[in-house]
Design goal:
Catalyzes the reversible isomerization-deamination of glucosamine 6-phosphate (GlcN6P) to form fructose 6-phosphate (Fru6P) and ammonium ion. Helix content is 32%, strand content 16%. With 260 residues, the chain is an alpha/beta fold. The chain has one domain: Rossmann fold, CATH 3.40.50.
Length: 260
């Protein structure tokens, strides 16, 4: 696993945006897997700035979703589909047709999960999947003790997760109880996994992911099994890494780091 320690979230966003830019030059119609939440926003902002400046041509890029609420009506402003369209697709100037995601309003949710998993494969697979990490080590909505071979499926949100997400709704009662999420096995199918973590609150999860054993109790530790996984962390999130000096000396000076 490659670990890059950056000064702050902005630097992490710039680094990863550069990597995406390199990918799009090599493969203009690359399928980019995106995550929601506040952590990846610096990536999307940096990438949109490059598109606006003409430094990157993203016109043929395709975007796919990591997870989605179940039961929200189509077009709900807090559905993850709406968030991705608002924060990624529109700022990059992409058409809505460039976007693919699971149908969280389907009558048969299990069939929708299977259809999305199949659609990702039919699209040629994800070229680069962006990931965040929870304080308990979850990725997507794969909570601790999720199967490391799991595929796209429906998951029940914990009450803590619902309370955490209530800030986006008028009340916690409006937060859905279920989500569709790519499984860990589905995530591992992507050609390149890039996880961004910032803040001291993520430090233990990062240390367990990078330096701990591969175990379902820390779902993100499955990234150790991937042939091309990159973890980008700020100083605070790196604060519990025993090998932090090694990572600084090994990776910070790699000339090819622009492309991760």
């Amino acid at each position: 696993m490659e670990v890059v320690i950056v000064p702050d979230a902005r630097a992490g966003g710039e680094l990863i945006a550069d990597a995406i830019a390199v990918l799009l030059r090599q493969k203009p119609d690359a399928l980019l897997g995106v995550a929601t939440g506040s952590t990846p926003l610096p990536i999307y902002q940096a990438l949109a700035a490059r598109v606006s400046d003409g430094a990157v041509d993203a016109s043929r890029a395709r975007i796919c979703q990591l997870d989605e609420y179940v039961g929200l009506p189509p077009g709900h402003p807090e559905s993850y589909r709406s968030v991705v369209l608002r924060e990624v697709v529109e700022p990059l100037g992409l058409p809505a047709s460039s976007f693919m995601g699971p149908d969280g309003s389907a009558e048969d949710v299990q069939a929708a999960c299977e259809a999305y998993d199949a659609a990702l494969g039919a699209a040629g697979g994800v070229d680069l999947q962006l990931l965040g990490i929870g304080t308990d080590g979850h990725i997507g909505f794969n909570e601790p003790c999720s199967s490391l071979a799991s595929r796209t499926r429906i998951k029940t949100l914990t009450e803590q997760t619902r309370r955490d997400n209530a800030r986006f709704f008028d009340s916690v009662d409006e937060v859905p109880h279920h989500v569709i999420t790519q499984g860990i096995g589905t995530i591992l199918d992507a050609r390149h996994l890039v996880l961004l973590a910032t803040g001291e609150g993520k430090a233990q999860a990062v240390a367990d992911t990078v330096e701990g054993p591969v175990a379902s109790v820390v779902p993100a530790s499955a990234l150790q099994l991937h042939p091309h996984a990159t973890v980008v962390v700020d100083e605070a999130a790196a604060s519990k890494l025993r090998l932090a000096p090694y990572f600084r000396n090994t990776y910070a000076t790699k000339p090819e780091w622009q492309g991760l």
